[in-house]
Amino acid sequence: MIAHCPPLDANSAYCNLLQCTHFAESCIVAEHGGEGGIAGWVSGYRPPSDPESFFVWQVAVSPAARGHGLAGRMVEALLDRPAAAGVTHLITTVTEDNRASWTLFEGLARRWNAPLAKSALFERETHFAGAHATEWQARIGPLPR
Fold first, then answer.
1. Of 26, 57, 136, 143, most Cβ neighbours within 10 A?
2. Exposed / middle / buried, residue 124 (Cβ in 10 Å: 0-12, 13-18, 19+)
3. Angle at which helices 70-79 and 99-112 pack, to 10 degrees?
4. pTM value?
């Protein structure tokens, strides 16, 4: 799924399997109705250093399922799970040019009537030696109860 959704970083299959087993309660898969294919995937976790936050690692929606609000519904479904009890903020990192992700997270902030703060987290030169764009942290919250 991730390989078909650029500009997401293609992690190893092993990494994705660890995500969906070790963090099963903070990952979600949406399937195409009756087709058996995967329409969407969101992975995340609660950082041990910030347990009141939910970090969204990757959001992927198949080209055929885009434009119907699936990504937002998957994120909200994750936040409705018992494993997210007590979460007050949603955080993620996004490169500046990933318009689809910015649209998703800005839209969620509007829908929740919650502020979105943006700050550089991992910088192109400092952290990636120029090989990857700066990852900007988006922090939304406090979230509605």
1. 26
2. middle
3. 50
4. 0.86
